[in-house]
Design goal:
The protein has helices at 19-31, 52-64, 94-103, 114-129, 148-161, 168-171, 176-184, 207-216, 220-231, 241-250, and strands at residues 11-14, 40-45, 69-74, 81-84, 138-140, 164-166. With 277 residues, it is an alpha/beta fold. It has a domain at 11-192: HUPs (Rossmann fold, 3-Layer(aba) Sandwich). A six-stranded mixed beta sheet has the order 4-3-2-1-5-6. The radius of gyration is 18 Å and the shape is globular.
């Protein structure tokens, strides 16, 4: 019986930088005896707002598992992306800022196009650069079996756009508990709480989570507040970033409740299928 993780190329494995997609990569490597075929590649798209812990985790996966990973970032240029690495990856939101300047507005609760343009599009551009014809290669995506609606939306979107998407974790009936058990037994791990997510203040997170993150490191709010000031817009219909910061300053010891399930998807998996042009 063929393993759910045996990948037939050409294929691009989308590595979001979270535990779930890292688990998927590990299982795919196992199915291929530790070495991927030449026409099966792994790629990580950096938005510039990923946590430093995420960047270290991606680097550790490629180093410990001896697997080449293409690091790419959005560029407003003909090729659409630039290859970077752990040391040269943007850490101050530069790709995201460039996209906002190009679009002349912010992504928000109605137009969640940041994942599409910062994650999906650069990966597709990389695939084309590598000689993978559109619609003729598989996109390997780390959605679990317990993320059913996201999978259905992804498949529906792929059918509309002529993409070929594959969800090995769903095929293998893997759930969140399986992922956490696996990482509890590994010699290294992503140094983030599950509710923190890879993108530091993603507007899809609950306000309690975002306030908690700002309390832990107030500087994380600076870039987000600056983008709202520059565009005169808002990422979230509920609150401006400056309002959240103001609430924290007025009540620094008051902690809002945090519900982990408000946002447990890795950046690039939650919104891409619902992006607005």
């Amino acid at each position: 019986m063929t393993s759910s993780y045996f990948i037939i190329g050409p294929a691009l494995i989308s590595f979001s930088g979270g535990r779930t997609s890292a688990y998927m990569l590990h299982k795919i490597l196992e199915a291929h005896n530790g070495a991927l075929p030449a026409d099966v590649v792994v790629a990580f798209a950096n938005t510039g707002r990923e946590r430093e812990e995420t960047l270290r985790f991606v680097h550790e996966c490629e180093s410990r598992w001896d697997v080449p990973i293409y690091w790419v970032e959005f560029r407003d240029a003909a090729e659409g992306f630039e290859r970077v690495g752990y040391n040269s990856a943007a850490r101050k939101g530069e790709p995201f800022s460039a996209l906002i300047r190009k679009k002349k507005r912010l992504p928000n609760w109605q137009e969640r196009w940041c994942s599409q343009y910062l994650k999906v599009t650069p990966l597709q551009a990389l695939a084309e650069h590598l000689g993978f014809a559109p619609g003729q290669y598989s996109e390997i995506i780390g959605l679990r079996d317990d993320e059913g609606m996201r999978i259905f939306r992804g498949l529906e979107d792929a059918e509309k756009t002529g993409r070929r998407v594959v969800y090995p974790l769903a095929r293998a009936k893997v759930c969140k508990a399986d992922i956490m058990t696996f990482w509890s037994r590994q010699p290294f791990d992503l140094k983030l709480q599950p509710w923190e997510g890879n993108c530091d203040l993603c507007f899809m997170k609950g306000r309690g989570i975002r306030k908690r993150i700002i309390r832990q490191n107030p500087a994380r709010a600076n870039w987000w507040a600056e983008q709202e000031d520059l565009t005169g817009g808002s990422f979230d219909r509920r609150d401006m970033i400056a309002d959240l910061v103001g609430e924290i300053r007025r009540a620094p010891d008051l902690f809002d409740p945090v519900f982990e399930e408000e946002h447990d998807a890795e950046c690039g998996l939650l919104c891409a299928a619902e992006a607005a042009e």
